Amino acid sequence: MAVYRPSEGRNQKKAAPPAQPNLVPIMNLFLSIIPFLLMMVVITQVAMVALNFSASAGGGDQGGGGGGAGGGAEKEVKIVLMASEGLDMFAGFDIREKGADNVALKNADNNGKYNYVALNSRLAELHTKYQDLKDIIIVVYPDVKYGTLIQTIDLCKQNGFPNVKYKPAVVSYGTGG
Description:
The protein is built from five helices and five strands. β4, α5 and β5 (163-168) form a beta-alpha-beta unit. The longest helix has 24 residues, at 24-47.
């Protein structure tokens, strides 16, 4: 029996190369986790997108001109998007101006196709009527599809209304009487 001192006993190793760890399971984990995390980042960013459809350029003209600011507050144009029919509702657009009658643009047919041609011409008329008006409000009912909202916003921007504001439709209850 060979007796070694404690320090020499530790140095007695096999003459084999060190065993390499199996990296396949950890690589499989990274190959599945990294795309998943990237996908979650994209989904989270899409979920947090604020519906701010105003133009990114400009913004300097909001505080200028002390006397002219009062006249712009009276002008307001709203486009109401509706998809279902009800008491005072119809499928289509309802354009509302302060101090003017509402303009109803019903859908072109019963298949749910919105009348974008009539909306385009009406927006062009509004732009010639209100040259200095840059803001327009779109009120959307919950049953309107997202593509319809985006096409309406695009039409507004093409017709000279760069600041499109989105507002959801609200229900207000009166006391009756």
